[in-house]
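just leaving the lab so this will be short. what follows is a protein written twice so to speak, once as letters and once as structure tokens for the fold. can you read through it and tell me how you think this chain folds. anything you notice is useful, everything is just below:
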Amino acid sequence: MIDVFAHRGLHTTERENTLASFQAAVALGVDGVELDVRRTHDGVLVIHHDPVVGPLEIAQSVRSALPEYVPTLEEALDSLEGVRVNVEIKNGRGAAERYDETGEFARHVLGTIEASGWSDRAGISCFDLKTCAFVRSMDHAVPVAWLLWDMAVGEALIQAHVLGLNAVNPHFTSVDEEVVERARDLQLDVNVWTVNKREDIERMAELGVACIITDDPELALTVVAR
């Protein structure tokens, strides 16, 4: 069974990473939803992909200053009853990012997931390997996936295995039969993003990846004959 996760909710009809997009994805019948979490200056976990909302830098803004459509992590989880959630921790070093060296951001995310009763339905992903390793050290049960971009997947599989992670999440263009077989040997799932065209979804399904993360979950559900 190949899981279909709606990338930032169902944003073909709703604004991405909003409660409306999450509720629409649940109604569609997806297996799960991928969303992005950031932390405001006053320590509130909010859902947004980019480090800025209009002119506001999230890490330097208080929660009350952000638009109403930007939900908190707790609100997002409340809207996603019935599916699983891939919580991507946005802990990066790019422009307008505020990298957390201490692990407190990740600890806060894990604590919120536990307090919200989502420990058995939510997993963590991050492009930052140090953050993935920190999450694994804090919680040996939560599924942890290393998001990959612009690096050799074969090498990443070995690092993920050594660190005790559960999966790698590479861009679908870097995945072939050899990658999937090697991952199985290392007891790792391969969750691919962001797969939107029918022919690409079909190819990933034929390879037997664990999860397809997509901007078009309706199409993906049709392709995998759900």
Q: What stands out?
A: The chain has a mean pLDDT of 97. Residues 104-115 form the longest helix (12 residues). Helices lie at 19-28, 73-78, 104-115, 129-138, 153-162, 177-185, 198-207, 217-223. Residues 88 and 112 are 14 Å apart (CA to CA).
